[in-house]
Amino acid sequence: MKRYSVFAVAREAARYHTGWERAWRSPEPKKKYDVIIIGAGGHGLATAFYLGKNFGITNVAIIEKGWLGGGNTGRNTTIIRSNYLQDPSAALYEKARSLYETMSQDVNYNIMFSPRGVMMLAQTQHEIRGYQRTAQANALQGVKTRFIDPAEVKKLVPIINIDGPRYPVLGALWQERGGTARHDAVAWGYARACSDMGMDILQKCEVTGVRSANGKVVGVDTTRGAIDCDKLGMVVAGNAGNVAEMAGFRLPLESVALQALVSEPIKPCMDVVVMANTVHGYMSQSDKGEMVIGGGTDGFNNYTQRGSFHHIEETVRALVETFPMISRLKMLRQWGGIVDVTGDRSPIIGKTPLGNCFINCGWGTGGFKAIPGGGWATAELIAKGEPGPLSAEFGMERFIQGRFIDESVAAGVAH
Ligand code: FAD
Ligand code: PYC
């Protein structure tokens, strides 16, 4: 595959862009692969990419029931941060954040990583204590965050109202190297790199069954026929419970819709990401000028991948005291994704009761930021058959052992 570069752009400009090739192939399924990954979201594609890059395993199919990146990866609000509390989480999310820094070069695709800074507002005494504790923990973990006072918040975000009558801003947890990236580009960049390594991305191909023999996986049934494999990775987020059922086991998680909305585009007015977790709202400004806004999950389990009117009202009402200017904005569009939420708000990366079948799920409302780290860890798990240091604590057996990795504060706004 041709490399994207300034020379390639110049060459194509000179010949009216007639020479670009498709970013990835759309092959027919083979009869058998060494590894099948179910789900071409960010985590599935990243898993395949690091299987190839770190372990030289390239006889891989990534099977997607819709279009690649069309699940939560293409529906999220792109916040990247690693300000988690527990040591295993900080290690995993910081690995991911640091991989985002060089991802454009690693996959030769501009993912528009923008380390513009992320702040989580403290608007109650409880939050001040919580975020000061996180800042201390992050210092010990080598994750650069700090607790800032209201004056610094105002300096960084001039449009904010720090003197709200109900929820004044009392400070914030600030991560300067947090930020955003273009979510579609993350999926497209990994997909192009995987295809270039010879892997097959099979879109419009739904997995309908998991086949096994002698306690081990041997293949999957799909809407494009049966395909055999030696190892299987399930990386299907909100559909994890359904796919696990096909393989004969249950998962300790619930699926709910998480919604977001964007405003009409306006002039640049806010160049950091702000999360207001107590009121359930967060906001950033996209490169197009739209204010990207989100809130909490739906209050009931569901599989609806779309928005609802009450959510617009609830979320904008939550934010308007802190950002009075949004009362004047027209909202352009809204949408939803199905997120897979565990009881301790931490992901599951591990083995399953079925031999040679591995799972990456449970990212809930916060897995975009984790895509490169989650893929890295899942690739190691699949290649070696055992979890490596990044994923060792995240197996689902922790729910039987009562060894929770509680990240309810870090998951914050959306839960
Ligand atoms: P997905 O991208 O959902 O990929 C799973 C894929 O599996 C899908 O494409 C699906 O079609 C496919 N699939 C399912 N079943 C089958 C089957 N039977 N056969 C074949 N394919 C199948 N996280 C952050 O870190 N920061 C944020 O700001 C943020 N904001 C969010 C806002 C919203 C509105 C939403 C919905 C989520 C947000 N998240 C955020 C969470 C984040 O989007 C997810 O955690 C992350 O994208 C999960 O990636 P994934 O690859 O596991 O899942
Ligand atoms: O995990 O940072 C996050 C997040 C923000 C909005 C949804 N998830």
In brief, what are we looking at here?
By secondary structure, the chain is an alpha/beta fold. The protein is built from eleven helices and 18 strands.
Description:
- The protein is an alpha/beta fold and 415 residues long.
- 30% of the residues lie in helices and 27% in strands.
- It has eleven helices and 18 strands.
- Strands 1, 2, 8, 9, 10, 11, 17 and 18 form an eight-stranded mixed beta sheet that branches. The protein has an eight-stranded mixed beta sheet with strand order 5-6-4-13-14-15-12-16, sandwiched between helices. A two-stranded antiparallel sheet has the order 3-7.
- A hairpin with a 2-residue loop joins strand 10 (216-222) and strand 11 (225-234).
- Helix 2 packs parallel to helix 6 (183-196) and helix 2 (42-55) packs across helix 9.
- The chain is globular.
- The relative contact order is 0.19.
- Residues 77, 79, 81, 282, 294, 365-366, 413-414 line the site of pyrrole-2-carboxylate.
Percent of residues in β-strands: 25-35%
| Alpha carbon gyration radius | 21 Å
Q: Which ligands appear in the coordinates? A: flavin-adenine dinucleotide, pyrrole-2-carboxylate
The residue ranges in which pLDDT falls below 50 over 5 or more consecutive positions are none
Number of strands: 18
Keywords:
alpha/beta, 8-stranded mixed beta sheet, 30% helix, binds pyrrole-2-carboxylate
Topology readout:
Layout: H1 6-14, E1 32-38, H2 42-55, E2 60-63, E3 79-80, H3 87-107, E4 118-122, H4 125-141, E5 146-148, H5 150-156, E6 171-175, E7 179-180, H6 183-196, E8 200-202, E9 207-213, E10 216-222, E11 225-234, H7 240-246, E12 253-265, E13 273-276, E14 281-285, E15 290-301, H8 309-320, E16 331-342, E17 348-351, E18 357-361, H9 371-384, H10 398-401, H11 408-411
Parallel strand pairs: 1-2, 1-11, 2-8, 4-13, 11-18
Antiparallel strand pairs: 3-7, 4-6, 5-6, 9-10, 10-11, 12-15, 12-16, 13-14, 14-15, 17-18
